[in-house]
Structures are given as structure tokens and as C-alpha cells.
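Structure ticket #2291
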Amino acid sequence: MNIPADLKYTKDHEWVRIEGDQIVIGITDFAQKELGDIVYVDVDTEGEVVEKEAVFGSVEAVKTVSDLFMPISGEVVAFNEGLEDAPELVNSDSYGEGWIIKVAISDNSELNDLLTSEEYKDLVSA
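Resolution: structure written out below.
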């Protein structure tokens, strides 16, 4: 299982890459394997401020739909439009081309609540 050390994680299996005053969010390698083949990614919160732990979208796999939860509060400033034509990028490159949204951070202190790669590894291997 791929769990990059330079990212932060949530208990809901989202990953977070910090880029200055923004974060990039996607779902983890573990999550995409559990879901199976992703056929659709739905995000209708672009341009909105979404509170921490609120739903910002969903991913649809062949057999299930799973909500996506905001790791920290902030404004959704971009959606990965490449996922509209190729949602399978979430499966093939979950930490790269399969990113889902970019968010302008509202409260930097909320970053402290995210899991390190070691903490996330412990969570998924428990």
C-alpha cells in the first residue's frame, strides 16, 4: 500500500498536500482499492466555503457511492476537471493526476488535526 510520507491524512481516507496557503485533496490508495473502479467523481462545491468534516462531493464506483469529507475548513477553489473525462485517474494515480480539489485554507490550525503517514498507516493496518 502506498502512503507517501510528505502528505497528511484523514480518518475518512482523504489525503492532503499543503501548497502554501492552499491544500490539494484526493482519496488515498487504500480508499481507491476498497472502492474499486471509480466511474464518476461529483463535486458541486467549487467556489463555496466548506466547513471541516462536511461533505464536499462524492466518488462513485461500480458497486457503491462514497461521500468525500473536507479535512479542514476552506474555500473550494478548483476541481480537477480531468476527472470528468477520466475518473479512473483516481485509481491509477491517486496521489498525482487523480487529485480531486484544491482548497484555500481558512484556519491553518486545523492542519494539526490531520494524521501523519505513520498514524494513517496504523489506522489502515489495524
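Closing remark: Residues 76 and 103 are 4 Å apart (CA to CA).
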